[in-house]
Amino acid sequence: MLDFLSKEHIVAKPGFNRWLIAPAALGIHLCIGSVYAWSLFNPALIKRLGVVTSAADDWTLRSVVWVFTVAIVFLGMAAAVGGHWLEKVGPRMVGVVAALCWSGGFFIGGAGIVTGQLWLLYLGYGVLGGCGLGLGYVSPVGTLIRWFPDRRGMATGIAIMGFGGGAMLAKPLIEGFIRYYHKLPEYLGTMDSIKLVTDAGGRRLAEVAGEMKEVVVIGANDIANMIVPGPEGVYLVNSGTVGVAQTFFTIGAIYLVIMLCAAFAYRVPAEGWKPEGWEPPKEGESHGKMMTRHHVHIDRALKTPQFYQLWIILCFNVTAGIGVLAVAKTMMTDIFGRTLPDLVDLNFAATYVLMISLFNMLGRFLWASASDYLGRKTTYYTFFVLGILLYCSIPYTASQVSANPSVVWLVYFYAATMIIFTMYGGGFATIPAYLADVFGTRFVGGIHGRLLTAWSSAGVFGPLAITSLREISVARAIENLVGKIDSTSFRAAFGAGKDQLQTLVEANTVTISKLMEIAPPGTVDPTPNLYNTTMYLMAVLLFIALLANAFMHPVSAKHHMKT
After folding, report:
1. d(CA 502, CA 508)
2. Tens digit of pLDDT for each residue in 395-415?
3. CATH of the domain at 525
4. How many domains does the chain have?
5. 145-172 tens-digit pLDDT
6. In which domain, by residue range, is 254 found?
7. Is residue 224 within 8 Å of 337, Cβ to Cβ?
8. DSSP designation for 562
9. 277 domain residue, yes or no
10. CA–CA separation, 221 vs 439, rounded Å?
């Protein structure tokens, strides 16, 4: 029944225009690339019950960021298995399965949001959706390299450019649908007009229709973080809808249609096909770019040191960017939201995510194409040296923003991170061509799939590092602020004493923004500096990757295939 999906049934006829494969590759990668827009879901997911702000039983930022991490882990695992499967069944079969998994992940994840079952969100978007990501990612790469042996870097840039630009397609969809389905909770009145009680668990309660019910309080510092603006005051928990579950269902259906159409457009070249007038470069004629004419079997490649050097190069380059991607929207509002409130709000932060996607996409095509002329090794040298300098400059920018808020620092931060993300995307797009140079083109799709386990590892370490270090910084910042606030003001604001601080923090009653409202005049907001330690750690990882790239050399002849 599925023969029409097999590799044998999609061999291109003579005269087929190889450029027709590019739109198919872009179609699938634009859909699965929306995973880079995951941070757009974060503000809604952590307000599932409170809607206007987080309630005591709402999911934490760390718990929902880990959904993204699980998706990336299963991306790498599925790619490692799917890369070998791709060599047998062809890209159409793999593309169709990817479409079913990715869209199905949205449907199951949406059900988890509706029912409040976080494990369903992990199972759907994380596990099943992650498998769709991995299969969809590898399906066009090896195919395009075979269609464009004369332009390997450009070919992989075309394929992977769509993945980097997926958030551009996703941003208007996600934000538009969330706003469309969003419904504000019941507004009870201003804080002065409502008698609030803080229970033993740190929750804020108010009497509604004769019953004590949980409420959330919106202060002046919280309005900028509301998805749909509303007045300051007290809102009834679980009386509105944040709109994120409905958005999952709608987007899942849209992606299913696009990806199926793209998968059916795939074709593979006939055995022995090559571009008219093109001949493979002879050994020693690649101008120092380490391009081999030999092929290394997919299983033999894992026995070479070059595979593991490339694994480290990809893993640490990805780690340095993926943690920031997972919390990009939150990071922008943390660093500049309160220092430049008239400029940086949720809409500005969402546009920042869009620009990350744009530069990520451009970097994939431009850097990969440039690597055809510079050579892959020189290209990665550029990534790591420049990346180390830029990551180390961000903590300085954050400290200057805290001490002297100015648009100049925002412009610098924006420019530095955009350059970082061109190189992050460029690293992804250049690695398949690097693999083809080192191991040959025969099994490049399968070898690339196995190398993507590096992405899985980075998907764990990157978000774990940035969320863990951020939580440590938040805890220290809250302790320092509480030490500057007198006990009377603290009790008046939160209905409990400082001895209950930990309980109040866990219930989202005490936050940095609420403490800053009652802090003594002249107190410096610590929020912009929450990510400083993370940036230095990322610079160290890039230095290790720099060393791995420096020691790269051609594969020993003993690993070459004999025929």
Report:
1. 10
2. 898 888 877 888 898 899 899
3. 1.20.1250.20
4. 1
5. 788 877 777 777 777 778 877 878 888 8
6. 3-8+15-183+241-269+290-485+520-559
7. yes
8. -
9. no
10. 55
